[in-house]
Amino acid sequence: MAITSIAPVINQYGATAATYSEVVEYLKDKYRGIYGQDVYLENDSQDGQWIGVIARVIADCNTEVINAYNSMSPSTSEKDALSRNVKINGIRRAVATKSSVSVVLVGVAGTIINNGIVSDKNSNRWLLPAQIVIPPEGEIIVTATAEKAGAILALPNSVITISTPTRGWQSVNNLQASTLGAPVESDTKLRQRQALSTAIPSRSYTEGILGALFSLDGVSRCKVYENKKATEDTNGLPPNSLAVVVAGGDDQQVAETIRVKKAPGCDLYGNTTIIRPTVYGDPVEIQYWRPNQVVVGLKIELQTTTDYTVEIGEQVKSAIADYINQLDIGDRISINKLFVPGGLYGALEGRTYEIESIQLIINGSSKNGNYTLAFNEVAYCDSDDIDISVVGGT
């Protein structure tokens, strides 16, 4: 059926426009209506080529009209347009972040630590907030930020060196692994966070906590679990308790957000305790989880062709590691889904091999089949922990 117009249309279903091929046929039909039906307009003719040029210009203009229409909604906009749209919700696209780790500082009450630096066992330096005062309790939990950008892993009990000795400051330690730095926030992640941010004034207080935490700078992952029963649940949560698992963000800001948003009478459960004052100055213990890092390695067997190279193998490792590092808290590591990034979908290099098998290695132990992270765990995969072996080929 011939179209009657090549102009874009906006209706209840959104914006639509004629495709390039439809525009070409439309212009050919109009051309023949002027010069006769016997005119030759195929691609090897000058007139046919000119029609193709005009059709391309019209189709490109139609595409930009649709893009402009779609840019008005957070659910369909992309890149800069999406960044502009989410500002109405009081959030912004997360820039590339450095790794961070919660550390416990122990010292004499009243000791002031200015521009403190601590180091881990791998000699990575971590920067403390500009000024810290040891409280009367003799210890305080603060967030240290990696000096260098990128994903820097500090395992529990590895940040133990004081690089800037200060009188009265006695020790430092991290009870949980570091939260890895993240690249610039993708459109997909920003859309998800925008949807969650609208839940801040929601009627469900758990949705409100989740939305408020995602609006904090540096928070990359967050889950809220509630046990309303009078018995311990399958996650090990105590009766009538709330567990908030947060990756990234400043400890004090996270704790204050939970204090303000949580329902009265609901016990908190976690591996991190922060003391926050009420509006009347009374101290309140706020508990939440910093996710435990699960180190994921893999053994991969390939059938290869003569075009396969070691460099292609490195691309496979990088693609799979990136996929695993994007998994959410408590996600399932599915073997079947690893075949997609491992196959370098859409790249010519993916034609040089076939994946025969994939086996997971969790914290150094081989696992058969899939692996489900605990409610308070997040996966970390270094491409160096992926072993590729060639078992055959042509």
Detailed description of the structure:
With 394 residues, this protein is an alpha+beta fold. 26% of the residues lie in helices and 29% in strands. The chain has eight helices and 22 strands. It has helices at 20-35, 46-70, 79-85, 187-197, 205-214, 251-261, 310-325, 335-342, and strands at residues 9-11, 14-16, 100-107, 112-114, 117-120, 125-127, 131-133, 139-146, 159-162, 169-173, 221-227, 241-247, 267-268, 272-277, 283-288, 292-304, 332-333, 353-362, 365-367, 371-372, 377-380, 386-393. The strands form seven sheets. The chain has a six-stranded antiparallel sheet with strand order 9-5-6-8-3-10, with no helix packed on it. A hairpin with a 4-residue loop joins strand 5 (117-120) and strand 6. It starts with 8 loop residues before the first strand and ends with a strand. The mean pLDDT is 87.
